[in-house]
Amino acid sequence: MKKFLLIGAVVFCSMALSACGKSAKQLNNTGIEFFNESDYEKAVTAFEQAIEKDKDGKPEYNVNLGKAYAELGKYDEAEKAFMAAYTDDKTSKDAQWGIGVSAYFLGDYATSMEYFGKVVENISVYDEIDLDSLQYYASLQTYYGDSAGAIDSYTVLIRKNYNVEQQYFLRGSIYAAQGMENEAVLDYEEALKAYGNDYEIYYNIYYSLHKAGFENRAVSYLRRALEVDGADNLLKGKTYYIIADYENAKKFLSKAMDEGKQEAEFYLAMTYEKLGNNEEAVSMYETYLKNYPSDAGAYNQYGMYCLNKGDYNAALGYFAAGLALGDTDAKRELMFNQACCYEYLYQYSTAYEKFGEYLKLYPNDEAAKHEYDFLSTR
Fold it and tell me: DSSP letter string over 263-284?
């Protein structure tokens, strides 16, 4: 949560929280002092006392209360405070922004977009609230599939010099998803002018291009990442794994595991698998799942290892365990692989049923459609 300056001028006053003898304005100023010192609990108390003193209400007190609650991560309470401010003053840009932020972090994206929309529809001066609202609004446009609108929003943010490296990366990722490789790369290169010594940005670029199907270009960014100073052993090991240099991957991932990096065990298991070191791979997978039993992706990976070895019953067990975790990110692969596994076991009716369930959720998967049609004849 980004800390914003609160509404109202701070004047000298006692830091005691007692409301006795203090006006609403004084209590608001006390709250601002606590807020600026990052003592958000006391700030909340002071702002609530200010609101109690001034029952006719000043929207600024509720806005300040909302911001203090937001800093505490209490977005339900923050939204109530911002909404109270908005009820008193429908023109309050701070209140509109605050409702947008609270709803965003509560996962209510429709409400978030509505209220950020109120801000961006009336942008005139492009102050901090305007630009931050446009940043959120652009991310919501992307979420709702309005790629053209998001590109326009990120372009405005770039022109206004607002976190430009971030905007270039985000706009580049939309271009990549739209199949516009050259436009994406131009934006990524602009982002790298600021992020060039940050190993993670190369990874983020890689994943965006990889997801879009531009594999050669994606891998080229990982190779460039290896030249960046300061990369830790885990990142180097992951990079070598992805570019299929498994000996170097093993070297750096082993170091990372010794350093206590949990993800290193997972990548090292996959590295041993690629190297044909099956005993080490099995041991590493099982150790990792014992230590991190809530990683659905790891169950999928180990299930695929078992499937490729022809141990279909074991694979089914791992796919089922992964699905039981309810991880939406891993669900698609787990469901597809589970259906395939039933097919390999010649349990065609079950495989047909599982592919049918899969296609209800992912109806555009051509590979699944092919298997489903095939199984309908078995």
Answer: HHHHHHHHHHHHHT-HHHHHHH
